[in-house]
Write a structure and sequence with these properties.
By secondary structure, the chain is of the alpha+beta class. It has three domains: 256 residues, Rossmann fold, CATH 3.40.50.1820; 184 residues, Jelly Rolls; 112 residues. The chain has twelve helices and 34 strands. The strands form seven sheets. Strands 1-3-2-4-5-8-9-11-12 form a nine-stranded mixed β-sheet, sandwiched between helices. It starts with 8 loop residues before the first strand and ends with a strand. The model has no long low-confidence stretch (mean pLDDT 95).
Length: 649
């Protein structure tokens, strides 16, 4: 880099690249190419190289074995500038034909989109997967303007990413000094994030949704229905003006070949077609196929897991699709109907804990994290049921709830769950949405609710495709919050909903007969990396005092990297969440994340990040810490203990 920082990279090259220059695809991450993503990078690099495309896996500055510089947060400006420089370097290599692509899942998908905004001339196409274009509403921090548990699950993991040690085999003898520099420079990331409780400049930085027009290269967006990041995909397809495609499968936060829940895809076949099209100028026919392909599930994954989710691959030629039509259903008193009935007021006191049937924003370990059968949550929510359907109904898009509602306190939330109720009475969550009602106008400038005043609130549910079956019912379930998905409101809330004037609009899609041929080979029965190590979740309560306790244990994921004889262990270990019904500020979250690197010539290097969160009605109390040991001796430890005012949160 221009300031002397060196980025560490692994390269896979076709055997004849020195004689016949080839395009190159870059994946750019802080997740340690040599012992973090090594096992997944190798098959990707090998496949691309065997098909005439080079692959470069680059460590971001301050991470892995890059030398110099610090990683101080998510998606920092220097990360983007370094990425542009790395693209230019790759394009100039003697084995390169000058055309560079970017691919990646999660962080790698984020920065592929973010760097594309800078329009480096050698970046010819990108493929972001499981990504977000809005770092506030559609990332691992705030859910609908409410503080999410995912903020702390990701944050403790990220602390260990920030503080990871370089590998002496590659970095050299000064590795420990570099490790100490990273540890000393590490910010209190959870504290920093909690200081930004609205969509301010901090989150707007690198939120590509604010300016898609700057992207000049083709984009292929990929996601999975059980992931939390899908809303960005249809926004990108709608807003971009460059050549673009989208695909959403049935899986969670994984690459398509690892697709769990299945079926998975032989994805590299599709990737090569994309890169050949845009990096080699070969017409592969990929752009003549539908813009948007998606899996249309017949049932929810939690009903059948670990088996493949039943359904089929559907497609729309363009998105938004003129074939998808809005269907308005009115929330009448106790029913969900085509016709609006006279309005009535329903009062709901939020003194019960709703949300235990779906605890996670992003499923990490599959079955324990999927949305389970919803009846226990439905029984303590306001319900609106349709009549049994006289025919199947398919939806694709974001359902919209339009609700006439008031609160008796200035800060409150509203959660909407859309479920399918079977003839046997089972309720399976299709999708959901949640909104901090002080953010009803926007997330930049929240305003208090005036107690007793009615507001018409629009709440978009998360993007989904689903086929409701003939004879089943559509259910809308309303509650004030979802715990432990998000932190409780500062005071006990009573909501009043006006029926008749409230509605749900479904994006209804008529089936196509036949669907366009699906050209990507399927992989059935793939367990994926998240099909294992699910751990245990112990939920107790509510007891006589209304106290609910969740204790979760994740077993460490231990990997032996044969090539380097390095043992890597990682995982969330001891998580404790508790909450007492009717007492919002009884809530407490605690947890940690462990990362361990061990090898004969390196010793045992351990990082443990921890947090502890509680609140009053006025403020959050947050404790976070990091501890690093080498061969059992404490090398570094630091803790932070901060009180942070609640900002209409």
């Amino acid at each position: 880099m221009s300031d002397g920082t060196q980025l560490s990279v692994r390269l896979w090259l076709p055997e004849d690249a020195d004689n016949t220059p080839v395009p190159v695809v870059m994946e750019y991450l802080p997740y340690r190419k040599d012992d973090g993503t090594r096992n997944r990078d190798a098959p990707t690099g090998r496949y691309l190289a065997e098909h005439g495309i080079a692959f470069a896996r680059v460590d971001i500055r301050g991470s892995g074995d890059s030398k110099g510089g610090l990683l101080l947060g998510e998606y920092m400006p220097h990360e983007q500038a370094d990425g542009v420089a790395a693209i230019a370097w790759l394009a100039k290599q003697p084995w390169s034909n000058g055309a560079v692509g970017m691919r990646g899942k999660s962080w790698g998908g984020f920065n592929a989109l973010q760097i594309a905004v800078l329009a480096p001339p050698d970046l010819k196409a990108i493929m972001p997967m499981c990504f977000s274009d809005n770092r506030y509403t559609d990332d691992s921090h705030f859910v609908g303007g409410a503080l999410g548990l995912i903020n702390f699950e990701w944050g403790t993991m990220f602390q260990d990413v920030l503080a990871g040690p370089p590998d002496p085999q590659i970095f050299g003898a000064q590795w420990k000094q570099e490790w100490l520099k990273r540890l000393e420079g590490m910010p209190a990331v959870l504290t920093e994030w909690l200081h930004h409780q609205r969509f301010d400049d901090y989150w707007q930085r690198q939120s590509v949704r604010l300016d898609y027009s700057r992207i000049k290269c083709p984009v292929y967006c990929v996601g999975g229905w059980e992931d939390g990041y899908n809303n960005s995909i249809t926004r990108a397809l709608t807003t971009l003006t460059v050549p673009r495609k989208g695909l959403i499968g049935p899986w969670a936060h994984v690459f398509p070949p690892d697709g769990s829940p299945g079926p998975a895809l032989d994805w590299m076949h599709e990737e090569v077609r994309w890169w050949e099209q845009w990096l080699n100028g070969v017409d592969t026919g990929i752009m003549a196929e539908p813009m948007f392909r998606f899996y249309m599930p017949d049932r929810k994954a939690s009903e059948v897991f670990p088996n493949d989710t039943p359904g089929y691959w559907a497609a729309e030629e363009v998105w938004p699709s003129p074939r998808v039509k809005p269907k308005v259903l009115y929330l009448n008193y106790g029913t969900l109907s085509d016709a609006e009935e006279p309005s009535q007021a329903i009062t709901y006191k939020a003194d019960k804990i709703v949300g235990l049937q779906r605890m996670e924003w992003v499923p990490f370990t599959m079955l324990n994290d999927l949305a389970m059968e919803q009846t226990p949550d439905d029984e303590i929510s306001i319900l609106f049921d349709s009549a049994p359907l006289d025919a199947d109904m398919e939806i694709i898009g974001r359902p919209l709830a339009k609700l006439r509602v008031s609160s008796d306190v200035p800060v409150a939330k509203l959660a909407v769950r859309l479920t399918e109720v079977t003839a046997e009475g089972k309720s399976w969550q299709v999708t959901y949405g949640l909104l901090n009602l002080t953010h009803r106008a926007n997330h930049e400038h929240p305003t208090e609710l005036e107690p007793g005043q009615f507001y018409t609130v629009e709440l978009q549910l998360n993007l989904i495709a689903h086929r409701f079956k003939k004879g089943n019912r559509i259910r809308v379930a309303l509650s004030e919050g979802l715990w432990p998905l998000v932190w409780p409101s500062p005071q006990l809330v009573t909501l009043t909903l006006v029926t008749g004037e409230s509605s749900l609009t479904l994006p209804v899609r008529p089936p196509r007969q036949p669907e366009p041929p699906f050209t990507i080979p399927l992989i059935h029965g793939s367990p994926g990396p998240t099909g294992q190590n699910a751990g245990t979740v112990a939920v107790s309560g509510p007891d006589a005092c209304g106290r609910v306790v969740i204790d979760r244990q994740w077993p460490d994921i231990i990997s032996l990297l044969e090539e380097t004889q390095t043992i890597v262990s990682s995982g969330w270990r001891n998580w404790h969440m508790e909450h007492r019904e009717g007492y919002p500020n009884s809530c407490r979250w605690q947890g940690d994340f462990l990362q361990r690197y061990e090898r004969a010539d390196w010793g045992a290097n351990l990082l443990v990040a921890q947090f502890d969160l509680s609140s009053t009605a006025q403020a959050f109390q947050l404790k976070e810490s990091i501890r690093a040991t080498h061969d059992g001796t404490v090398l570094f430890e630091r803790s932070w203990d901060t009180t942070i005012a609640r900002d209409l949160m």
